[in-house]
Amino acid sequence: MTSHPPGQPTDPVAEFAVDVDRHIAGLRADADLQAASRLWVRNIAPHKYSYNFRWMGRPIIQFPQDMVAMQELVWAIRPDLVIETGIAHGGSILYYASLLELAGHGEVLGIDVDIRAHNRSAIEAHPMAHRVRMIQGSSIDPEVITQVQALAQGRKVLLTLDSNHTHEHVLAELRAYAPLVSVGSYCVVMDTIVEDLPASLYPDRPWGPGNSPKTAVRQFLTEHGGFEIDHDIEAKLLITVAPSGWLRRVGCSSPQHNSSQVGTEAHRNTPETKPQGQMP
Ligand SMILES: C[S@@+](CC[C@H](N)C(=O)[O-])C[C@H]1O[C@@H](n2cnc3c(N)ncnc32)[C@H](O)[C@@H]1O
After folding, report:
1. What pLDDT shows up at residue 6?
2. How far is the CA of 51 from the centre of ligand 1 (A)?
């Protein structure tokens, strides 16, 4: 517990927050624990751990730890729109939809190149379906990008990328969709962990170390000054598929948008995010 000078008023809420920050700083400094966590993630990967879970009946291909962090973001940001590339069985879009349902506001837009009929019908029949929209098509198809940009217009957006994990694809998604993210909100790039795991884990995939979401994030951050990596999230999780993938929007690339903030009307999407009809 935080020590408290005698005779001064206590603020238990602030003290708790200070304690948590201190614990997270301790985790950031604990190289042994970080190495043990990386080893755990590396050893669990061949077991397809992320396939073990369901959300409200639907398979969700995620680490539970990451979903707790996403819950914290959704609750703090209260987005109007959560955009996710990569639907698969629908577990994650329905998870975000259920969080928005609890918050009483917002919808999810999922994009997938292949929404299988059995998945589509299960998602459409789900109790959270009223908060879900889906687009079938490649997330980097200019027509899909135009549709997404139009739906995001004027809304507070939280983005997560979880489709094709090659460098080229994720970079194209970042260029197309990250500008839609509201200042103070996040772009969460899943599976940056690919860069830190052995190539032998992905024998039948086009991605691997050197060609991964993390290399795409690195390049994108050199191109777009409006984001920074929130290292505290990965530090507190330790177990995450998104190391260096929790990107907080801290500003706009255009100076006219510098006053935008989550929590105010000004955070909402600005001319920078208007439909362009093509990738920036
Ligand atoms: C890892 S799964 C998504 C998992 C899902 N987000 C969840 O948590 O349950 C990846 C998905 O990306 C989709 N995908 C692959 N290439 C794509 C592309 N070019 N555009 C959109 N989706 C794509 C696949 O069809 C697959 O359903």
Report:
1. 72
2. 13
Calculate how far, in angstroms, residue 167's C-alpha sits from the geometric centre of ligand 1. Answer: 15
Ligand 1 surroundings by CB, under 6 angstroms: 60-62, 85-89, 91-92, 111-114, 138-139, 162-164
Question: What is the domain partition of the chain in residue ranges?
Answer: 12-264
Q: Which residues pair with 171 in a beta bridge?
A: none
CA dihedral 19, 23, 26, 32 (to 10 degrees): 160
276 and 147 Cβ atoms separated by less than 8 Å: no
CA of 113 to the centre of ligand 1 (A): 7
Integer CA distances (angstroms), 165 to 5, 17, 140, in order? 51, 35, 12
Give CA–CA dist 156/78, Å, rounded. 8
Chain-centre distance for alpha carbon 32: 27
- At 37-79, the pLDDT tens digits run 999 999 999 999 999 999 999 999 999 999 999 999 999 999 9
Is the pTM value of this prediction over 0.85? yes
Across the strands, what pairs with 159? Answer: 83, 187
Identify the bridge partners of residue 247 per DSSP, sorted by sequence position.
Answer: 187, 229
Per residue in 143-157, pLDDT (tens digit) is 999 999 999 999 999
The C-alpha angle with vertex 216 and arms to 146 and 239, in degrees rounded to 5, equals 110
Atom 11 of ligand 1, residue of closest alpha carbon: 86
Name the fold adopted by 12-264: Rossmann fold (3.40.50)
